Amino acid sequence: MRVVVADDSVLLREGVVRLLEEKGFDVVAQAGDAEDLIRKVNAHKPDVAIVDIRMPPTNTDDGLRAALEIRAALPECGVLVLSQYVEEGYALELVGDSAGGVGYLLKDRVADVDRFVDSVRRVAEGGSALDPEVVAQLVGRARRDDPLAELTPREGEVLELMAEGRSNNAIATQMTVTERAVEKHVTSIFGKLGLPPAPEDHRRVLAVLAFLRA
Amino acid sequence: MFGVIDVALILTSDHTNLRGAVAVLGLVIGWGFIGAGLFTWARRPDNSLGSLMVATGFAWFVGGLSGSDVPALFSVGALFGSVYLVTTMHTLLAAPHGTLSQGDRRIVIGGYLLVTLGVIPLWLFFDPSTQCEACPENVFLVEGSETAVDIVGTAINLLGIVVIALVLRSLVRRWRRATRSERRLYAPMYGAGVALMIALIGQLSLQSAGSEGNALDMAFVISLIPFALVPYLFVGAFLRARFVQGGAVGALMARLGDAQSPGGLKEALAEALDDPSLELVYWLPEANRYVDASGRPVDLPEDNPKRAVRKVERDGECVAAIVHDATLPEVHEHVQAVGAAAALALENERLDAALRAKIDELRSSRERMLQIGLEERRRLERDLHDGAQQRLVSMALNIRLARAKLNEDPLAAEQLLATAGTELDSALEELRELARGIHPAVLTDRGLATALATLANRAPVPVELGELPDERLPEAVELAAYFVVAEGLTNVAKYSEASHATVNVQRENGRVVVEVADDGVGGADPGRGTGLRGLADRLAVLEGRLEVESERGHGTTITARIPCG
């Protein structure tokens, strides 16, 4: 799996690169700013680009803008954005109208190597990986007539994992239940929230996000 | 006419002593009162003093009828011969506004009752022929009884003394309470009033003591002198007030041209209006309040009988207000004239005062900002020290311990590392929150709309975002607006018990208007708590203003107006 890593902090970039190489990824290029990233992504056409949100030249959200540009220009290239803090607004912007091949995680998550690697792989393969904190913000938003109140605690848990972009299999493992049980929960959730059934994981994410942001 | 008839009656009277003096004084007094009364009436129709003086004049002439040799005229004149005294007291007590206080009204009513109804029993029993042979008949006579006359007469005299003493007390008390300019103006009038009261008391005392003849007549004539002066003194005071002030407007105009020191205009106006207690305050429309010449905020006194407030306008806008002694006659129109004459100078001083007020405000808001800055740094230091730093220290300790145990007790080492990992997560979490509190990065990156959406999302109360600006605003304005909403929503969550809140940010007339409204319990006090105060200071730096509307039971709305291109 071919990866481009972009971060202006050399220390973090080298750390991520070493970690990915240990796990068998092929890091084809590294970039220190947004322009450099776009150039290298265009040149190497990797499976996934891992991008720090805050980068030169302006040191604001250059990474995010570059990520959006890559998603528009190269839809087959997955983009995983890392950030020191999460803004649910950024997540929604990044996802736009397709949750395929996109990820948005807190930088801290890198420390949980297995889950991080899993996320990178998911995004590279056209799935999605949203930070649990983003999902928690969206789910936890105060609403006037909250249909989420109708979900059972188990269903709430499944909803959050779904929104993160996990597959039924991953959810089952995480919750130590059978995949069949997860499927039942999912059907129930979609019924209660009045969502149309979505077969693929990333379409499911989009549907759930669309519901949560409304 | 009435006067001439009176004079004729007195001069031909067979029973009047000191005929010449009484006749001349009588005419002077009657005409004096009526003339002065008509003059005042014409100038100040809303003031009852004019009509009171006219009434006194006629009452006086009615009393004069007692000089007549015709029994009916004599009797009426004698019966109502003292009414003029009470109308005079009424006039003195009602000066200068023409109204009576509650206590004075009682005294005057008592007086009127005494000289009308009170004297009737006397005249039922009084047979004039027992006193003087030349006197005509008393047409009201029922039965001549000297004992009854003595008893009733003494009682009336004593009551009269009581009424007069009360009037005297009221006059003296009034004098004590008078302002300097009132004293200057009314001194002769008060003097005449007091002299008249003392003379009357003397006269009644003599009568009660049984004196007769010349002593009594002399006392009567003496009492007539201050009485006769009253109308002239009234008109004199009236004219003097006008004259003094009229001359002063010219002097004021001349002085206005000179260079003014702050507060110099107040001195000039105080002199022009002859009112040392005069105050001058300036209106600051942007601050929505009055300040004095040095820029300190001032509250206007309520309009009351002692202090009057006159607003001075220039080009239809209020620029200042003159707070003056309301007891001076004619001063009201005069203040108007003086105010108009001084409007330009007032405008200049107002700008001066506005500048001073601004400087004061800047100074204090700068001090508060400095204070806020220091407090924020202290808080940051404390948060870092108690939070992230402690966790990192504990983590370093756990990692070192784990390394030491790595070989001999790998299980314990793993436990220690797991603890260190948890500490690390918490430290990172705390640092993130801290950074967000110092400056929300999303605001710089994406502007107000996105940043406010995040705030709204995280609020524990449902928040509806109304109008938000699409375009980017100056950074300082965005930050201020963000903190207004952040503080507003924090307060909604903490105190309001609201079920939902709305946030609006609009641009209007070169200002950004930020509004956070909830449907909670209201009753928020903007003066209390450091949050709103700090916000106001933050806004003051940008020349912005904060308003809090929080009627109990009607929710709370905080509105910030920030100037913005």
What features would you describe in this structure?
The complex is a heterodimer of chains A (214) and B (565). Helices cover 53% and strands 14% of the residues of chain A. Chain A has helices spanning 10-22, 34-44, 62-73, 88-95, 113-124, 132-140, 153-164, 168-175, 179-193, 201-213; strands at 2-6, 26-31, 48-52, 78-83, 102-106, 128-130. In chain A, helix 7 (153-164) packs across helix 9 and helix 8 (168-175) packs across helix 9. The longest helix of chain A has 15 residues, at 179-193. Chain B has helices spanning 2-11, 19-43, 49-64, 71-79, 83-94, 102-118, 120-125, 146-177, 180-208, 214-256, 264-272, 331-341, 343-405, 410-438, 441-446, 448-458, 475-496, 530-541, and strands at residues 279-284, 289-291, 297-298, 307-314, 317-325, 463-465, 501-508, 511-518, 545-549, 557-563. Classes of the chains: A alpha/beta (214), B alpha+beta (565). Chains A and B meet through helix 4 of A and helix 14, helix 15 and helix 16 of B.
Largest sheet of chain A: 6 strands, parallel
Tell me the structural class of chain B: alpha+beta
Largest sheet of chain B: 5 strands, antiparallel
Indicate the mean pLDDT of chain A. Answer: 92
